[in-house]
């Protein structure tokens, strides 16, 4: 066990017993990285005479259990400063293609797009991976070759069609706001190719 994790629970050493010796013993034991009996006996001369080998092992096991359970109780009682809510996890684009990253060094570009109500984007494609998070509005994306329609709303994560012609349209009454992330080979400045 990590020393840091054990120190978090060291305040609960008093559960072991009422004697000051045992409490102090628990403090010292909680700082150990290994829980072998030989090490414990070597570092606890005051208890060596009063506790049998079996009692020392039982005490150690009790301390370990107290630390494990009390650590969870303390973690639940402390307000969390960071909350992580997974939004998406995939290995495929919206059209079912596998996501492949550019070979070699890669540039990550982050942009914010605002698409007015009723606006339609020109037919285009992305030769490299593009991801978008819909922050507001309703967006319809159409695959130009098949006519397949993909609808997205605020809170949706989009893995855009890779190297396939498509276009988007704001189908709602409010602007669509997108946070867009491109992964391109180093040196490229755009990941959008307009259809001639």
Provide a short characterization of the protein structure.
The protein is of the alpha+beta class and 196 residues long. It is 27% helix and 26% strand. Mean pLDDT is 74; it is low at 1-27, 29-41, 43-50 and 66-70.
Please indicate the percent range of residues in DSSP E strands (runs of 2 or more): 25-35%
Strand order of the largest sheet: 1-8-3-6
Say what oligomer this is: single chain
Structural class, by secondary structure, is alpha+beta
The residue ranges in which pLDDT falls below 50 over 5 or more consecutive positions are 1-27, 29-41, 43-50, 66-70
Q: Tell me the span between the first and last alpha carbons.
A: 62 Å
What's the tally of helices? Answer: 5
The average pLDDT value, as a whole number, equals 74
Tally of strands: 9
Mass-distribution shape? globular
Radius of gyration: 30 Å
Specify the helix fraction band: 25-40%
Order of helices and strands: HHHHHEEEEEEEEE
Largest sheet: 4 strands, antiparallel
Descriptive account of the structure:
The chain is α+β, with helices and mostly antiparallel strands and 196 residues long. It is 27% helix and 26% strand. It contains five helices and nine strands, in the order H-H-H-H-H-E-E-E-E-E-E-E-E-E. A four-stranded antiparallel beta sheet has the order 1-8-3-6, with no helix packed on it. Strands 5-4-7 form a three-stranded antiparallel beta sheet, with no helix packed on it. A two-stranded antiparallel ribbon has the order 2-9. Strand 4 and strand 5 form a beta hairpin. It starts with a helix and ends with a strand. The model is unreliable at 1-27, 29-41, 43-50 and 66-70 (pLDDT under 50).
